[in-house]
Specification:
Blueprint: E1 3-4, H1 42-47, E2 70-71, E3 111-112, E4 116-119, E5 129-130, E6 162-163, H2 171-174, E7 190-198, H3 213-217, H4 223-226, H5 231-237, E8 238-248, E9 272-277, E10 288-289, E11 295-307, H6 308-319, E12 348-350, H7 370-376, E13 445-446
Parallel strand pairs: 1-13, 8-11
Antiparallel strand pairs: 2-10, 3-7, 4-7, 5-6, 7-8, 9-11, 9-12
Length: about 450
C-alpha cells in the first residue's frame, strides 16, 4: 500500500530488441471504490469525470442482437434454463453432441459483462433451494407438472424457490438493513445472482460491465457473424455463473467483491452443475421460450448466506461503471422452473472446482468500514486457506555480466526505440492478457 523504490533505467545492452509499439490499446481499470472518503463522494466524482461520464463513448451501447421469445413448441433443439441442477438430474431434450463449457470461463477468453439477480431461485436443487425452503414471505410450491401456473396480483413480481436458512427467531434474518445502493432488497430473502460472461465482451476495458447484459454479451459481435456460429461455438463462448444466497444482517458474512463473478472459496462454488440452456427471466415460461440459446450455465448447487452489506457494496460498484447499470440494482422476476422436455440432457455435476477470488475492497461506506467488515468476516479471514501462500519460486538476482540472454526491464519505451540485446526469435505477448488465460495477481507501484 506504499510506493516501492524504482530501478535505474536499464542499459541498452540489457534490453531486448523486440519492442512492439502499439498506438491505441486499452485495458480495464479495476475499480475498488468507497462510498465516502474524506472529501467528495466517489459517485459525485464519477458524475463529473471527463474520463467516464460520456455515455456516447460506450462502445457496447445498443449492441444487443434482437431474438424474440418464441413458443416453446416451435423450437427445435434450443435448450432452456433455469433447470433442476440436483446431482443425478438430466433433462429430456436430446441435444446430441452439444456439451456445456466446463472450463473456468476466463480460460475460454470470457469475462463477466454484467451482474443481476432474481427474487427467489430460477434453478432447483433438492434440499438447498426448493419448495421446502422459507423466507419472510414464505415460498412457492413445487410445480405439479409442475403446478406452478398461478395468478399474480397486479404489479406482483413472479418469484422463485427459497433456501433453507431462514429462521424467524434469529435476528440476523429479521433485522432490517439500511440499504444505500441496492433497491427493494430484503434481509432474510433468497436471491439468485447471475453473472453473464462473453468472449465478445469489452473485456479489460471500462465498457466491460453493461446493462442490459445483452449489450455486454454481443459487444464485439455483429448479427452476420453471429449467424455463422454453430451451437457449440456459442456454448463455448457465452456462459452464465449462477449462485444462490440468503441475505443476512450479519457482517461476519461480508464479501467485498461480488461484482466480479461467482464466489469460489471453501464450500462456495465447490458443487457446480454445468449444462447448456438459455437466458431466463419472467418473460419466459414453459409456453414462451428464449431463443438466446444454447449458452453454458455453471450453477452452484448450494445456497449460501451473505451479508446485506455485501450486496450493497456490489450495487455501489455497479454504480461506478461507465455504463448506467441502475436497471439492475433491484431483483428481477424469476422464470418458472423449466419442464424436463425443454432441458438439455447434458448436465455435468462437478463436486470441487476453484477459481480465483478477485478482491476489491472499499475504504469507507456510511456505517461500518468495509475493511472492518472484511477483518471480521468468517468467509475470507482464514489466512491458512490461501492456496497461493508461499508459492514464490526463488530465483536470486545475478550480476548482469553473468547473464546470457535474459532481457531486463524497465526500459526506454519511446516509439522507435529498440534495445541492443539480441533475443533471437523471442517475442512479447501482444494479446490482451486475458486472451492468454492470464489474470492479475497483484498490484503495486514505484516512486
Amino acid at each position: 500500500l506504499h510506493a516501492h523504490g524504482s530501478r535505474e533505467l536499464v542499459k541498452d545492452e540489457f534490453v531486448a530488441d523486440n519492442h512492439v509499439h502499439v498506438g491505441d490499446r486499452q485495458r480495464k481499470m479495476a475499480e475498488a471504490v468507497s462510498d465516502e472518503l474524506s472529501g467528495p463522494s466517489f459517485l459525485n466524482l464519477k458524475a463529473g469525470s471527463s474520463m467516464i461520464s460520456d455515455g456516447s463513448a460506450n462502445t457496447c451501447a445498443g449492441k444487443k442482437l434482437d431474438s424474440p421469445n418464441t413458443p416453446c413448441v416451435d423450437l427445435e433443439v434450443q435448450p432452456q434454463a433455469g433447470a433442476n441442477v440436483t446431482v443425478g438430474y438430466l433433462g429430456k431434450l436430446d441435444v446430441g453432441e452439444l456439451t456445456p463449457n466446463t472450463n473456468a470461463y476466463y480460460k475460454s477468453k470470457m469475462c463477466p459483462v454484467n451482474v443481476h439477480w432474481h427474487l427467489g431461485t430460477e434453478h432447483y436443487s433438492v434440499g438447498e433451494f426448493d419448495e421446502n425452503g422459507g423466507g419472510p414471505h414464505g415460498n412457492i410450491a413445487r410445480p405439479d407438472w409442475a403446478d406452478r401456473e398461478r395468478a399474480l396480483a397486479e404489479g406482483e413480481m413472479q418469484d422463485g424457490f427459497r433456501c433453507h436458512h431462514y429462521d424467524e427467531t434469529d435476528a440476523k434474518f429479521t433485522t432490517p438493513y439500511e440499504w444505500k445502493h441496492c433497491v427493494g432488497m430484503e434481509v432474510g430473502e433468497t436471491y439468485e445472482v447471475h453473472w453473464p460472461h462473453s468472449a465478445a465482451g469489452a473485456c479489460g476495458t471500462v465498457d466491460q460491465f453493461q446493462t442490459p447484459f445483452y449489450d455486454g454479451v454481443f459487444c464485439g459481435l455483429d448479427m452476420d457473424t453471429f449467424l455463422t456460429l454453430e451451437a457449440q461455438d456459442i456454448a463455448n463462448a457465452v456462459g452464465v455463473h449462477g449462485q444462490i444466497f440468503t441475505i443476512v444482517n450479519d457482517d461476519s458474512y461480508f464479501y467485498p467483491d461480488m461484482i466480479r463473478g461467482m464466489i469460489v472459496d471453501g464450500e462456495m462454488g465447490k458443487d457446480v452443475t454445468h449444462y447448456t440452456g438459455s437466458t431466463t427471466g419472467d418473460s419466459r415460461s414453459n409456453e414462451m421460450c428464449s431463443t438466446y440459446s444454447p449458452i453454458t450455465w455453471q450453477v452452484d448447487r448450494k445456497c449460501h448466506m451473505i451479508s446485506a452489506s455485501s450486496f450493497d457494496k456490489m450495487c455501489y460498484d455497479m454504480k461506478m461503471q461507465r455504463d448506467d447499470m441502475s436497471d439492475d440494482l433491484h431483483a428481477h422476476g424469476s422464470r418458472e422452473l423449466v419442464k424436463d422436455e425443454f432441458v438439455a440432457d447434458n448436465h455435468v455435476h462437478v463436486g470441487d472446482r476453484q477459481r480465483k477470488m478477485a478482491e476489491a475492497v472499499s475504504d469507507e461506506l456510511s456505517g461500518p468500514s468495509f475493511l472492518n467488515l472484511k477483518a471480521g468476516s468468517s468467509m475470507i479471514s482464514d489466512g491458512s486457506a490461501n492456496t497461493c501462500a508461499g508459492k514464490k519460486l526463488d530465483s536470486p538476482n545475478t550480476p548482469c555480466v553473468d547473464l546470457e540472454v535474459q532481457p531486463q526491464a524497465g526500459a526506454n519505451v519511446t516509439v522507435g526505440y529498440l534495445g541492443k540485446l539480441d533475443v533471437g526469435e523471442l517475442t512479447p505477448n501482444t494479446n490482451a492478457y486475458y486472451k492468454s488465460k492470464m489474470c492479475p495477481v497483484n498490484v503495486h507501484w514505484h516512486l
